[in-house]
Design goal:
The chain is an alpha+beta fold and 396 residues long. Helices cover 27% and strands 32% of the residues. The strands form 4 sheets. Strands 1, 6, 7, 17, 18, 19, 20, 21, 22, 23 and 24 form an 11-stranded antiparallel β-sheet that branches. Pathway: Nucleotide-sugar biosynthesis; GDP-alpha-D-mannose biosynthesis; alpha-D-mannose 1-phosphate from D-fructose 6-phosphate: step 1/2. InterPro entries: Man6P_Isoase-1 (IPR001250), Mannose-6-P_Isomerase (IPR016305), Pmannose_isomerase-type1_CS (IPR018050), PMI_typeI_cat (IPR046457), PMI_typeI_hel (IPR046458), RmlC-like_jellyroll (IPR014710), RmlC_Cupin_sf (IPR011051).
């Protein structure tokens, strides 16, 4: 069954026709692209903040499910669609954020429902469509120590005792104290610190600029002037996912998407705790309750897909989670038989032209299809190959 996604026009999205999200919506709906509007996210699923529609009926997908799927399978709609599937087109950095685990999410929802409006956790998995710049997870300790010692502006940001304690002890409590002080700074506090760094590095050679992340810090400061998050790349891993590479983000891991296009799958949740690069609420106390202070290497953050039958079908199932993604490449004239899932599944076509099933309904760039539990389909690429598809599904 063909469905459409729900468009989110967050201000960090790519503008007009430069947005992959806008191109998809334009090809799959009657959207007229505005050259000055940001088109940030395409949501596919039944989340109440942005629900898919059955294309030929313009009916909410959840309503269609309640009417057409036997009651025994509707005892829990989250079991049918335990995930939220997205395409993102990022023009400038999203907020630095992390997500609570299940217990923390429910507790925050009960305590502060006007701020934390979703009681579900939000582990996330991202596959790059284009080169995709990200920050995620605390850097290895030695890297953080190097920046603390070699970037003199940290002496303007933090007390000598805080820096020395981390350099000598390196305990989670030391990092917690650093962040408590750092994230309490105002824009007035940050302005001379960031200005000092940019002025000093502007006169350094290219190798120094690269080592001390000058271009990134400069860009972040232009997007979010005097924000506490501008210096966060010194503490968080900064790297680029190449097209087809995947990253998994567990509960509590701080992260921010910087630029590029991706597909993303997560638990059916819109829960977030922000700490920087945003004009929105920075809830430092809650952040420090849920933050994962563990250091990661970039390789530890990336997730390697498992080939299924051939290298053209890659399966990404994060351990212990309720969702997974499969990327599929079909050459012109070839076919792909989808796998059955215990839950509903959704797939999107990002290139190529083809047909699906016995009806031979046309598939093209931007087509989005919904499959019921245990339903499979045969997909053929008829021209314009290779056809590239992404499937999202539940795994429990």
């Amino acid at each position: 069954m063909e469905i459409t996604g729900h468009l989110q026009n967050y201000e960090w999205g790519k503008i007009g026709k430069n947005s992959l999200v806008a191109q998809i919506m334009c090809n799959n709906t009657d959207l007229k692209i505005d050259d000055e509007t940001p088109y940030a996210e395409l949501w596919m699923g039944i989340h109440n903040n942005g629900e898919s529609l059955v294309k030929d009926k313009q009916q909410p997908l959840s309503a269609w499910l309640k009417k057409n799927v036997e009651p025994v399978r509707l005892s829990n709609t989250e079991q049918l669609l335990p995930f939220l599937f997205k395409v993102l087109s990022v023009n400038k950095a999203l907020s630095i954020q992390c997500h609570p685990n299940k217990e923390q999410a429910l507790d925050l929802f009960k305590r502060m429902p006007t701020i934390y409006k979703d009681g579900n956790h939000k582990p996330e998995m991202t596959i790059a469509i284009t080169e995709f710049q990200v920050m995620s997870g605390f850097r290895p300790v030695d890297e953080i120590k190097t920046f603390l010692k070699e970037v003199p502006e940290f002496e303007m940001l933090l007390s000598k005792d805080l820096i020395d304690n981390y350099l000598s002890e390196n305990k989670d409590e030391c990092m917690k104290q650093i962040l408590q002080t750092w994230l309490a700074k105002t824009e007035l506090d940050m302005e001379p610190i960031i200005k000092s760094f940019l002025n000093r590095l502007a006169n350094e050679d290219d190798s120094a600029k690269e080592k001390y992340l000058f271009l990134l810090i400069k860009q972040l400061s232009e997007w979010y002037p005097n924000d506490v998050g501008v210096f966060m790349p010194f503490f968080l891993n900064y790297f680029t996912l190449n097209p087809g590479e995947c990253m998994f983000i567990a509960a509590g891991v701080p992260h921010a998407y910087i630029k590029g296009d991706c597909v993303e799958c997560m638990s059916c949740s819109d829960n977030v705790v922000r700490c920087g690069l945003t004009p929105k609420l920075k809830d430092v106390n809650v952040l420090l309750e849920i933050l994962d202070f563990k250091s990661y290497t970039v390789d530890q953050l990336k997730m390697v897909g498992v080939p299924k039958g051939s290298d053209n079908v890659m399966v990404f199932n994060p351990p212990g989670q309720e969702f997974g993604l499969t990327s599929v490449i079909i050459q012109t004239g070839e076919t792909y038989q989808s796998s059955a899932s215990k839950t509903c599944s959704i797939f999107i076509v990002l290139s190529g032209i083809g047909e699906i099933g016995k009806t031979k309904k046309t598939l093209k760039f931007g087509s989005i299809f919904f499959l019921l539990p245990k339903e499979t389909c045969l997909i053929k690429c008829t021209k314009g190959g290779p056809m590239v598809l992404y499937f999202a599904y539940g795994v429990n």
